[in-house]
Amino acid sequence: MFRVWGKIIKDNHLLKDITTCDDSADTRTHKVFRALDDICRAFDLGKPIWLDSNIREFQRHTRTRFRQDSFVEQIDFDFLEFHVIEED
Q: How are beta strands 79-86 and 63-66 bridged, if at all?
C-alpha cells in the first residue's frame, strides 16, 4: 500500500486534507505523480511544478511543500504539503 497525505495550510491552520491510496504495481515515481494528480483534482488546483528545492526536500524527508512559486496560478493559501505516509 502506498499512501500520501495532502494538506492545504494557511496561517498555520489546516484548511483541507486528503489521503490517497495506491495498490498498483507501478514504480514509486509513477505512484507519487498519480497521487499528486489525485490531490490536486480533489482540491481543484492546477498541478504544481517540482522545483529543485521540492525534489531535494522530498528525497530527504518523503515530504515537500509547494508554495506560490510552484504554482502558475495565484493560490489563496500558504502551501500544499505532500507527504508519503506509507510505502509497501
A: antiparallel
Cβ proximity of 66 and 48 under 8 Å: yes
- Print burial letters for 10-22: b (CB count within 10 Å at least 16), e (below 16): eeeeeeeeeebeb
**Residue 48 contacts by C-beta under 8 Å, 6 or more apart in sequence?**
36, 40, 54, 66, 70, 71, 80
The yes-or-no verdict on residue 78 having pLDDT over 90 is yes
C-alpha cell at 16: 483541507
How do residues 11-39 score in pLDDT, each as one tens digit?
999 999 999 999 999 999 999 999 999 99
Is the pLDDT reported for residue 88 higher than 90? no
The Cα 55–Cα 1 span in angstroms is 22
C-alpha cell at 58: 522530498
The stretch 54-81 carries a mean pLDDT of 96
